[in-house]
Design goal:
2 domains; Polbeta; globular; 7 helices; alpha+beta; Arc Repressor Mutant, subunit A; three-stranded antiparallel beta sheet
Length: 131
C-alpha cells in the first residue's frame, strides 16, 4: 500500500495501524512476529509495537508466545471482525494487489475474482481464483 486510502485515513488516523490491519486482514489465520512485520510493512519497530499493543488491548489481535517472542494473529471472533474486514478489503483489498501484480502483463483487459475469497469464505490456505 503506497498511499493511504482517504476513507481509512479518516477512520484510522495512524498510517501504521492501517498497514498493520491491512496486512492481517489479507492474511487471516497467519501469525507474525514484530520483526517480520517490520520487514514486511517497512515501518519502525516502535510504531509497530505501539499499534500491536493497542490492537491487542481491544482483542482484535491475539498474541501467542513462542520462546521469548510474541506472535500476533487476527482474532476472527472479534465482534466487528467481518465488518472491519469488509471495509479493508473494499478500500485496499486484494483487487489492488492483483491489479499491481498483473499490471506488468500485456493484453490483460478484464479480471474477475471468484471462488471462496470473493464469497468471503476463505481460510488461511485458500488460493485466489482469477479469470
Amino acid at each position: 500500500m503506497n498511499k493511504s486510502n482517504p476513507i481509512l485515513k479518516a477512520l484510522f488516523s495512524s498510517e501504521t495501524r492501517i498497514k498493520v490491519l491491512s496486512h492481517f486482514f489479507l492474511h487471516p489465520g497467519e501469525g507474525f512476529y514484530l520483526r517480520q512485520l517490520e520487514k514486511l510493512l517497512g515501518k519502525p519497530v516502535g510504531q509497530l509495537s505501539r499499534e500491536l499493543l493497542n490492537l491487542e488491548k481491544v482483542q482484535l489481535l491475539i498474541p501467542s508466545i513462542a520462546g521469548n517472542q510474541k506472535r500476533y494473529s487476527i482474532n476472527r471472533d472479534f465482534p466487528l471482525y467481518n465488518e472491519l474486514r469488509k471495509i479493508f478489503l473494499k478500500t485496499i483489498g486484494i483487487g489492488d494487489i492483483i491489479r499491481k501484480s498483473l499490471s506488468k502483463l500485456k493484453k490483460v483487459e478484464l479480471v474477475f475474482i471468484y471462488g471462496s475469497f470473493a464469497k468471503g469464505e476463505e481460510y488461511n490456505r485458500s488460493d485466489i481464483d482469477i479469470m
